[in-house]
Design goal:
Blueprint: E1 4-15, E2 18-29, E3 33-37, H1 44-51, E4 59-64, E5 67-68, H2 74-77, E6 81-84, H3 96-101, H4 116-128, H5 144-157, E7 162-165, H6 174-189, E8 193-198, H7 201-207, E9 210-215, E10 218-223, H8 225-228, H9 231-238, E11 242-247, E12 252-257
Parallel strand pairs: 3-8, 3-9, 6-7, 7-8
Antiparallel strand pairs: 1-2, 1-4, 4-5, 9-10, 11-12
Helix pairs in contact: 4-5, 5-6
């Protein structure tokens, strides 16, 4: 059995008197990809904020490698978990290299400036994602897909083994979406533990080991995509009727809206 890297136990969270998450419990295995699937407002981003220590006023317990995150200082938590947003606009004109270099600051003490060591870590992260050639380019002038890969490289430069990705393909075209998801799958094979949120059941079928279906303040289902994503679940999540079809000798599944047939 694989070691459990992240475990969430009876997590509840409210904004004032509005309940967002209620009694959420699940564990994520080391080196796996878990997709969080659910409609807008289901609490996906709130769950991620709790995991990242950005929303501390929750009830329940979150552990990483058996240690409660409530007792982990922010600077040490930044060495355990990295966050990759949907997109990121900079207030300053930064190069791709400098954007990724910022990820190394989690390992710096006090006011120490990045050294040759941090520069090498930055180049290694860019090389791992195949974008080292972009290092001198203006981050604001590269494509959306390239920007997303830069944000992933920045997370790798943080040198954590857990990556939390908030709808990483939300603003990307079809080709760039697949490139980012392919890199995500490659990182999982290298031992990274990844949680990503999505609205696409097809992305879950293709790239995730487990799916966490979140809605109505709670987990509706949790398990392997093939066993968990069924037409009734999609109807409950999104209010639409779909047919789940198997392709290539049942190796791949996809969702087809009934009203499209």
């Amino acid at each position: 059995m694989k070691a459990l890297t992240i475990c969430v136990q009876h997590l509840s969270f409210s904004y004032k008197d509005r309940m967002i998450l209620k009694d959420i419990s699940f564990c994520v295995a080391d080196g796996s990809i878990t997709a969080v699937l659910g409609p807008n407002g289901a609490g996906k981003s709130t769950l991620f904020k709790c995991l990242l220590g950005l929303s501390a006023s929750y009830e329940g317990k979150i552990t990483i490698n058996g240690e409660s995150t409530a007792g982990i200082p922010p600077e040490r938590l930044a060495k355990l978990v990295a966050y990759i947003p949907q997109s990121h606009d900079t207030a300053f004109n930064l190069s791709v290299f400098d954007m990724v270099l910022m990820g190394t600051t989690a390992g710096l003490r006090g006011f120490r400036m990045p050294s040759q060591k941090e520069s090498e870590i930055t180049c290694q992260a860019l090389k791992r994602l195949g974008i080292l050639s972009l290092k001198d380019r203006d981050y604001q002038k590269i494509s959306g897909g390239e920007r997303q890969l830069v944000l992933i490289a920045r997370a790798l430069a943080q040198q954590t083994k857990v990556l939390i990705m908030d709808e990483p393909t939300a603003n990307l075209d079809y080709g760039n979406s697949l490139r980012v998801l392919d890199q995500m799958k490659s990182l999982a094979r290298q031992g990274y533990t990844i949680l990503f949120s999505t609205h696409s059941p097809d992305h879950v079928f293709l790239y995730a080991d487990k799916v966490l279906a979140l809605s109505e303040q709670k987990i509706l289902a949790y398990g392997s995509p093939d066993e968990t994503i069924v037409s009734d679940l999609i109807r409950r999540l999104y209010g639409i009727d779909v047919i789940i079809e198997s392709l290539y000798g049942d190796k791949v599944k996809c969702c087809i809206p009934k009203n499209a047939i």
